[in-house]
Design a protein that fits this description.
Blueprint: E1 3-7, H1 12-21, E2 27-32, H2 35-52, E3 63-68, H3 74-88, E4 93-96, H4 111-139, E5 142-146, H5 159-182, E6 185-191, H6 197-209, H7 214-225, H8 233-243, E7 255-258
Parallel strand pairs: 1-2, 1-4, 2-3, 4-5, 5-6, 6-7
Helix pairs in contact: 1-2, 1-8, 3-4, 4-5, 6-7
Length: about 270
């Protein structure tokens, strides 16, 4: 049995990653704030398992544990790990995807917004990795932290996003160094402009602010970024799947940017 915890599993990259991991793991713990959306992810996993990997008679191919929790809360971290261990007795992979940081200008963002943005994406992931660490040591498991390519190209319009993403890369590197000693593999992923609901909402605001239609905004962004197209959540999910696979075990402490070439620097 192999067990993975996926946070942010209710939508976007998190949902796509959970569905992709259903091909390789026998148990998945799906964590997000929206219980109804988690159920939709679980249904997709159930369909995939029935099609690709039939389980033993009377058992699903992939068992899922759904935990509706706000990872900004310390008690939620304990609940995720405690329920995972009570149900599956092990943890082989932790994929930290939960967390959205508001894209607000450097001079307009309040301390409360800064702190709230960091609390889930940075500190929630940090707390969860620490709490899961003893069990990951036992399984010689893997951890992936999601960051973003803004960590390498900060701008005043999304200063908090870039700052927190950069901190996540540094955090993952620190965990990776400890992981060399403890037998836990750790990496981070830096996606670029992936077409999720969050990206759609950003483009709606951007189009309105610039007097553009939605389609015009989509096209202008690609031209300005000098990339061919937007990424898809499933493409990031494939990378996540590789990072927690046996073939990636010697990949440790890497910050892997997948952004269609948006960041031009080396």
């Amino acid at each position: 049995m192999k067990i993975a915890i996926v946070t942010g599993a209710s939508a976007g990259i998190g949902r796509a990653t959970a569905i992709r991991l259903a091909k390789d793991f026998t148990g998945l713990v799906l964590v997000a704030r929206e219980a109804d959306e988690l159920l939709k992810t679980a249904e997709e996993i159930k369909k995939l398992g029935a099609e690709t990997r039939p389980g033993a008679e009377g058992k699903p191919a992939v068992e899922t544990l759904l935990i509706a929790a706000d990872l900004r809360e310390v008690a939620a971290i304990d609940r995720v790990i405690n329920e995972t261990m009570a149900t599956f007795k092990r943890i082989d992979a932790l994929i930290n995807i939960a967390g959205a940081v508001p894209q607000i200008h450097l001079f307009e963002m309040t301390d409360e917004q800064w702190n709230d943005g960091a609390e889930m994406k940075l500190h929630g992931a940090r707390r969860l990795a620490i709490k899961a660490w003893p069990y990951l040591k036992e399984s010689r498991g893997s951890v992936v932290f999601i960051s973003g390519n803004s960590a390498e190209d900060p701008k005043p319009g999304f200063a908090a996003v870039a700052t927190i993403n950069a901190a996540i890369v540094a955090l993952a590197k620190a965990f990776a160094e400890q992981g060399i000693v403890d037998g836990v593999q750790v990496n981070s992923v830096l996606p670029g402009p992936v077409m999720t609901n969050r990206r759609v909402n950003f483009l709606k605001k951007w189009s309105a602010a610039n007097g553009l239609t939605m389609e015009e905004a989509k096209g202008k962004f690609l031209v300005d970024a000098r990339i061919e197209r937007y990424g898809e959540p499933e493409e990031i999910a494939e990378l996540m799947s590789f990072l927690v696979s046996p073939g990636a075990k010697w990949l440790i402490g890497a910050a892997i940017r997948m952004d269609g070439g948006e960041i031009k620097g080396i």
